[in-house]
Design goal:
Layout: H1 5-11, H2 13-23, H3 34-51, E1 57-62, H4 68-82, E2 90-96, H5 99-107, E3 109-110, H6 120-126, E4 127-130, E5 133-136, H7 138-141, E6 144-148, E7 165-170, H8 179-192, E8 193-201, H9 209-212, E9 215-217, E10 224-227
Parallel strand pairs: 1-2, 1-7, 2-6, 7-8
Antiparallel strand pairs: 3-5, 4-5, 8-10, 9-10
Helix pairs in contact: 1-2, 3-4
């Protein structure tokens, strides 16, 4: 009897990576949905700093694709530190199931269309143009670690902090899960957050009934939730 496709994948790890690359959508760009990042800069990150003055700020970007979201958060952190709004250092973790996308994230070289939402001042400070591509500078790159992790396993990324994150960005990930798995993932993310920590979902996502009593939306329709 010929092997099943599952057996074939188990025996050929490279084919599994190719399948994941074909099935996953990696559409992202820096500062996607600028309103969310304005809220981070003006309210969320300063509040985290104020309430955790002696702590390292811990941020997790789940489903980070090619790193645009995680690096956007790193740029905000750097800007706030330079303005002395923030004084702490930050530990930022980006995770995804697509190893190819993670390798692109580590290289941090982007097409111009990935940077359409980046303000010119930030573009000039943190990117260098190379052959019509934009390379992120090392100062920002070193603020983020990227590891392969499947959030649907409901396990912690072994390379990261096990829990007590101050901020988790999980945008446009839950849309791929059924309602039962969404409920489990939201409960899991709630447990990974500090009390008073923040969870940010995608525009098309919402808290389900099981998680709604754990969070309060800080700005109406922003998808920025605070664990209460």
């Amino acid at each position: 009897m010929p092997p099943t496709f599952l057996e074939y994948l188990k025996g050929n790890p490279g084919e599994f990576d190719a399948l994941m690359d074909a099935l996953t959508i990696k559409v992202s760009h820096f500062f996607r949905n600028p309103f969310v990042f304005e809220a981070l800069s003006l309210f969320v990150l300063p509040e985290i700093m104020e309430n955790n003055r002696e702590d390292v700020i811990r941020i997790w970007s789940a489903g980070c694709a090619k790193g645009e979201e995680a690096y956007s958060a790193a740029i905000l952190i750097k800007e706030l530190i330079s303005k002395e709004v923030l004084r702490q250092e930050a530990l930022i973790l980006g995770t995804d199931i697509d190893r190819g996308a993670l390798e692109d994230a580590r290289n941090a070289v982007y097409k111009p269309e990935s940077l359409l939402e980046v303000k010119k001042g930030l573009l000039d400070r943190y990117f260098a143009v190379e052959n019509a591509f934009y390379r992120l500078n090392e100062e920002i790159k070193t603020m983020v670690a990227f590891v392969c992790h499947d959030i649907s396993t409901l396990t912690a990324p072994k390379e990261g902090i096990f829990m007590d994150y101050h901020l988790i960005l999980c945008r446009n990930v839950l849309i791929y899960f059924d309602r039962n798995l969404c409920t489990k993932v939201l409960e899991y993310l709630s447990n990974m957050l500090q009390k008073g920590g923040f969870l940010i979902l995608g525009e098309a996502e919402s808290l389900l009934s099981g998680a709604a009593d754990r969070f309060q939306e800080v700005i109406p329709k922003s998808k920025v939730f605070k664990r209460i």
